[in-house]
Amino acid sequence: MDRWLVCSTVEWKIENLREILNQHKDSFLAKRGQVIKEDRRTAITLFEFAGKRICVKEYRYKSIGLKLKELLRGSKARKGWMKGNEILKRGIKGINPVALLEKRRWGYLQEAFLIMETHPNFVELRRYVKDIFGDPQQGFVKKKAFIKELAVFLAKLNCLRIAHRDLKISNILVKEVDNSWCFALTDWEDLELDKQITGKRLIKTLVQMNTSTPLFVSLRDRSRFLKQYLTLIGRDDIKTVYREVIRWSEKRGWVNLI
Length: 258
Known about the structure:
This protein has 258 residues and is an alpha+beta fold. The chain is built from eight helices and eleven strands.
């Protein structure tokens, strides 16, 4: 397609992808509520298209430095496309890759987009945690069940050897279904596949989760999650890992207020 490289699943036509990109770009011009994020490196929109919930992640290259960096380390959009398809094959669902579009000039990336389809009712885990743990009306039983399900999801990632270099809770999506929960991952370009989640990688992941969790989540709930997760992945050094997570969290400036 002109200077574009396009990879897509078979049911999507080029005309559909053009329309999606146009709607994505129009969202910024019209200042619509479809814009989820916008900065110098990335821009994300979420909207309905042909009866589907579409998310577009745009990778921006506004300086020669960014273009050169992408040339040396490889396209983030392409990494996201490949890893998103791979984790879908491994059973991590909720977000489906739709298409990758890259436009180059003299070998340098000019534009890149990753188009995804996300299931309805998914929200950022950070927002959901605020609703369920920040509301005093929410029951203890539901909170306890939710903590267990989140631990099961992360243990599944461990079992599948799927690591995430930036596993903040804003990079996990959650959907409540019939007194249970479904989870999905975002920022696919930061995934590491076929990696053992042990040692420093394990501590780093848990510190990222802990420091990105709102402070109103109690230390007891955090400890309950950690214990269940470590038990599920077969660790018997729970107290040692707990102390390391707290120590490294405090080095990052984290202080638990409850």
